[in-house]
Amino acid sequence: MAATIYFLCALTSLACFLFLFRGWRASRARLLFWSAMCFGAMTVNNFLLVADKLLFPTADLSSWRLVMALTAVTLLLFGLIWDEE
Questions:
Q1: Transmembrane ranges (predicted)?
Q2: How far apart are the first and last CA of the chain?
Q3: CA of residue 80 relative to chain centroid, distance
Q4: DSSP-based three-state secondary structure for 60
């Protein structure tokens, strides 16, 4: 059951990334770009979670997951601060 939840979370963040990136390409709104980059990093974070818990249960990928989560939040925060419109 946990494997299904992990995988669905990864697919949901990937879908959000794709929809936001497609919206950015159509409108060129910078906030859409930074939101898409945030969800791209969250997608990597979720796939690292799948790899950590399911594919490599003996390895500890928590540091990499934390780095990707920090990167995602930093990208969105940068986009929110930098976008003055």
A1: 5-24, 31-51, 63-82
A2: 44
A3: 16
A4: coil
Q: What is the largest CA-CA distance in the chain?
A: 47
Question: Residues 12-68: pLDDT tens digits?
Answer: 999 999 999 999 999 999 999 999 999 999 999 999 999 999 999 999 999 999 999
The pLDDT-based confidence of 85 (bands split at 50, 70, 90) is low
84 has a pLDDT exceeding 80:
no
Q: Report the C-alpha gap between 34 and 3 in whole angstroms.
A: 29
Residue-number span of the structural domain to which 9 is assigned: 2-82
Q: Are 39 and 13 in contact (CB under 8 A)?
A: yes
What lies within 8 Å, CB to CB, of 24 at 6+ separation is: 32, 33, 36
Report angle CA 38, 64, 72 to the nearest 5 degrees: 10
Amino acid at 49: L
